[in-house]
Amino acid sequence: MILAAALGLAPAIAEAQPAARVSTREAATAARLINAYRASRGLAALRVDARLNAVAAEHARAMAGVNLLSHDIGGGYAARMRRHGLPTASENIGWGYETVAETVAAWRASPAHDANLVKPHGRMGLARAVAPGMRPYWALVLAP
Known about the structure:
By secondary structure, the chain is an alpha+beta fold. The protein has 5 helices and 5 strands, in the order E-H-E-H-H-E-H-H-E-E. Helix 4 packs across helix 5.
């Protein structure tokens, strides 16, 4: 499912869905995977931040709630980050990957997403949201 949105595999029409289950439990695993990658490039490790987990959870829930992979749900990415006091944050999103390892691998394989993974950030938050009968939506927020 690499680059699901680019391949047209992500849902294209936004419509209300049943309430999504949201989890930030995979954040530590994501940090381990991303930090190993960053270390291989001589970059400092990221630490999991509860506030960024909450920001990621909000967006993952919003995407699952309307069954749409997009940075622009809820007023757009830039407005969302400003609302949370994170004007220099980066965000990666994904859809359809069952595991955090698959999701991180897809981000590494995408030049734009990979660029976010190696920016000079120090904190990260990750969340996964799944509504009944749907595949997972993922959100990663990285910030200084």
